[in-house]
C-alpha cells in the first residue's frame, strides 16, 4: 500500500474546496487504490467490485470534464496521481 500516499488536499483550488473536479478525482483515486488492495485479498467480494467499477467510471467522467474545461489542470491531475491516459 505504498501508493496510498495521495493527499487530496493538494488538489484543492481554495481553502474549503470539496467540489472541484480536481479534488474529487484525487479522493476517488485514493478510494480506488484502497478498494483494489481490499479486492486482492477478498477475491469473491463482488459487491465491492461493483462499487469499484462505479468509482472508476465516475472518475473517468470527471477527468473527461476536466480535460474539456482546463487542459493544464487535467495534466496536473494525471501526472500528480500517476494515472495513465
UniProtKB/TrEMBL annotation:
SUPFAM superfamilies in alphabetical order: S15/NS1 RNA-binding domain (SSF47060)
GO biological process: translation
Lipid biosynthesis among keywords: no
Keywords from the named record: Ribonucleoprotein, Ribosomal protein, RNA-binding, rRNA-binding
GO molecular function terms noted in the UniProt entry: rRNA binding; structural constituent of ribosome
CDD domains from the UniProt entry: Ribosomal_S15p_S13e (cd00353)
Keyword Methyltransferase assigned: no
One GO cellular component term: cytosolic small ribosomal subunit
Role played: Forms an intersubunit bridge (bridge B4) with the 23S rRNA of the 50S subunit in the ribosome. One of the primary rRNA binding proteins, it binds directly to 16S rRNA where it helps nucleate assembly of the platform of the 30S subunit by binding and bridging several RNA helices of the 16S rRNA.
Summary of subunit composition and partner proteins: Part of the 30S ribosomal subunit. Forms a bridge to the 50S subunit in the 70S ribosome, contacting the 23S rRNA.
The family this protein is said to belong to: Belongs to the universal ribosomal protein uS15 family.
Annotated protein name in UniProt: Small ribosomal subunit protein uS15
Amino acid at each position: 500500500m505504498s501508493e496510498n500516499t495521495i493527499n487530496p488536499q493538494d488538489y484543492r483550488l481554495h481553502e474549503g474546496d470539496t467540489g472541484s473536479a480536481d479534488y474529487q478525482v484525487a479522493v476517488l483515486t485514493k478510494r480506488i487504490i484502497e478498494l483494489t488492495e481490499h479486492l486482492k485479498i477478498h477475491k469473491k467480494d463482488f459487491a465491492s467490485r461493483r462499487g469499484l467499477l462505479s468509482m472508476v467510471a465516475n472518475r473517468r467522467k470527471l477527468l473527461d470534464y476536466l480535460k474539456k474545461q482546463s487542459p493544464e489542470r487535467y495534466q496536473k491531475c494525471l501526472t500528480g496521481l500517476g494515472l495513465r491516459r
